[in-house]
Amino acid sequence: MTVRRTLPHKQIRTVGAWCFVDHYGPDAQSMVVPPHPHIGLQTVSWLLEGEVEHRDSVGSVQTVLPGELNIMTAGHGITHSEYSVSRGLLHGIQLWVALTDAHRDRPPSFAHYADLPQSGGVQVLVGEFAGLTSPAEVFSPLVGAQVTGRCDVAIEPDFEYAVLAVAGSATVNGYSVPHGGLQYLGWGMDRLVIDGDQTLVLGGEPLQEHLVMWWNFVARSHEEIVQARYEYEAGAARFGPVTADPRPFLPAPPMPTVTLKPRPNR
Ligand code: MN
After folding, report:
1. How many angstroms separate the alpha carbon of residue 35 from the centre of ligand 1?
2. Exposed, middle or buried by CB within 10 Å (0-12, 13-18, 19+), for 191?
3. What CA dihedral angle connects 242, 49, 30 and 25, to 10 degrees?
4. pLDDT at position 28, please?
5. Looking at residue 156, what is its pLDDT?
6. How many C-alpha atoms does 113 have within 13 Å on its Cβ side?
7. Distance CA 226, CA 204 (A)
8. Å from CA of 80 to ligand 1 middle
9. Distance, CA 106 to ligand 1 centroid (Å)?
10. pLDDT above 90: residue 16
11. What is the pLDDT of residues 225-243, one digit of tens each?
12. Based on CB atoms within 10 Å of each CB, which residue in 38, 174, 214, 222 is the most buried?
């Protein structure tokens, strides 16, 4: 499957607390991601086509369909798996939100939202956009919204924003964004004007904390990553079995030979 990773980028590592954006497909349904761990983040799973089944170590078994939201809070530690389950095309976006220091050690949890607020081509995944507010729980000032067609809306000057052209190219505040491109807009604006087939708006208060990201872990130091990897490989309670998934856990890759260092966000 074709995957376009637009975040983290060499120069821009986060947009608000958004720290990872993978845009995949449309392609034949072929998602097979066996049980693997996460710490210190929320995963936001968003589909445009297809169907994916999520299972995790807090007891969830949940199918996600286009226009629905799966949001998993890894906190201190969780294990999950994802498999595409229907024929036809799969097209979606896998996003991660870094949990801030105050929340990153919280207990893991999972939530599914089948009826997110929408109006006039706008559907809000998290936060508030175009007067609509998502019920999804996030832990820092953040927004994620899908826009179909045109929009001209007031935005939060204290937030930084980026827009992903999900289907077709787009024009965003005067910038031409090619299909699959993520246009970073910075902060200090009070309007967002988009014209495109389908776009995803990502924004939030600029994250002040410097992250250490390795494999599926978001932490603050090399030592935390080493510890999480060790506990996962040792089968510690922190990374429990995935409900109704007998597949073996994905092995963790070896640690890099260099010490991982916190990075500035831009
Ligand atoms: Mn995952």
Report:
1. 8
2. exposed
3. -120
4. 86
5. 98
6. 20
7. 29
8. 6
9. 18
10. yes
11. 999 999 999 999 999 999 9
12. 38
For 29-66, write each residue's pLDDT tens digit.
Answer: 788 999 999 999 999 999 999 999 999 999 999 999 99
Q: How far is the CA of 33 from the centre of ligand 1 (A)?
A: 8
Cα–ligand 1 centroid distance for 84 (angstroms): 14
Considering Cα of 138, then 141, then 142, then 143, what sign does the dihedral take? positive
56 Cα to the center of ligand 1, angstroms:
10
Distance of CA 99 from the midpoint of ligand 1 (Å): 15
Q: Pairing relation of β-strands 52-56 and 78-84?
A: antiparallel
Centre of ligand 1 to C-alpha 76, Å, is 14
DSSP string, 151-186: EEEE--TTSEEEEEEEEEEEEETTEEE-TT-EEEEE
Mean of the per-residue pLDDT values for the chain?
96
Residue that wins the pLDDT comparison between 88 and 189:
189
- Amino acid sitting at position 199: T
> By the 8 A CB rule, do 81 and 245 touch?
yes
pLDDT value of residue 242: 97
Give the distance from CA 124 to its chain's centroid: 14
